[in-house]
Recover the amino acids of this structure.
């Protein structure tokens, strides 16, 4: 088509061909240097790009030594998951694989580790853990008084654990979170506690793994502090089996949207670690998650 059109484009192309000169060796070397430098700059940015693109909303679980089972009958209208780890068998049993690795706010289940960090840092001790109530009226009568670690854990007193962590340096707290590998280890939340429907997030599988690490003290903390936390979260003893655990309820716009119950059972020379998480538009409480957990544990003959 250029040959039947105007002559100027043809003239321009011919002149361009005539003027062409091959690059000299020196120019080739310069060009290679520029390309190499550009490649180096791109390569140096890959770790940054990888960090920016990394998805920390999920936990990368290999699924080894895991059996997946259908426990949907226990969850009715809830979107939920149940994770169980048998210590002696070194095996997981999981319902709802997708939700078991999804990170959400830990809510009050985080208080297990808040207590450990407070003990390890010296902010409190097993013998001297009382913190005075500041006089502010809270919606729960049990919160409106002085508390020690054991009563605060039993009544899940938010202000106590906030006051406890205010006694610790923020950097020190960050170090503890990273030391135990707690979920996304993000304490950047500004509105209210970072562990209460804010920046900190963890998956049910991670909850179970951390409980096992706490139980066996893989963290290398003071054994006395580990034992104190265990005592603080002991709930019941029945038929020779002992139940330890902590509930958590996430409230958004005055609606209970996130419910947790995590813990472990000591029974007949074995220990079973578990985590239940449920989601609902308005009825996902920690107490409801505990009811579901206890039904499953009973039917499995664990507790």
């Amino acid at each position: 088509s250029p040959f039947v059109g105007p002559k100027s484009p043809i003239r321009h192309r011919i002149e361009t061909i005539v003027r062409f000169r091959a690059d000299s060796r020196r120019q080739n070397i310069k060009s290679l240097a520029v390309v190499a430098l550009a490649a180096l700059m791109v390569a140096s940015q890959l770790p940054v790009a990888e960090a920016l693109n990394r998805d920390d909303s999920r936990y990368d679980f290999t699924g080894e030594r895991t059996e997946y089972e259908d426990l949907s009958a226990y969850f009715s209208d809830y979107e939920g998951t149940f994770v169980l780890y048998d210590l002696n068998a070194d095996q997981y049993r999981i319902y709802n694989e997708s939700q078991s690795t999804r990170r959400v706010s830990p809510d009050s289940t985080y208080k297990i580790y808040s207590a450990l960090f407070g003990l390890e840092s010296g902010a409190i001790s097993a013998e001297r853990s009382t913190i005075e109530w500041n006089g502010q009226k809270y919606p729960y009568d049990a919160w409106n008084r002085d508390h020690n670690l054991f009563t605060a854990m039993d009544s899940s007193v938010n202000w106590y654990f906030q006051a406890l962590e205010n006694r610790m340096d923020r950097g020190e707290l960050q170090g503890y979170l990273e030391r135990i590998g707690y979920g996304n280890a993000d304490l950047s939340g500004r509105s209210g506690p970072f562990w209460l429907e804010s920046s900190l997030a963890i998956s049910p599988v991670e909850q179970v793994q951390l409980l096992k690490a706490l139980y066996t003290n893989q963290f290398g903390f003071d054994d006395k502090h580990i034992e104190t936390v265990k005592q603080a979260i002991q709930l019941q003893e029945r038929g020779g089996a002992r139940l330890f655990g902590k509930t958590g309820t996430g409230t958004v716009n005055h609606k209970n949207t996130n419910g947790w119950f995590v813990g472990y059972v000591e029974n007949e020379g074995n220990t079973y670690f578990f985590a239940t998480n449920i989601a609902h538009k308005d009825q996902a409480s920690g107490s409801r998650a505990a009811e579901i957990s206890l039904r499953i544990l009973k039917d499995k003959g664990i507790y």
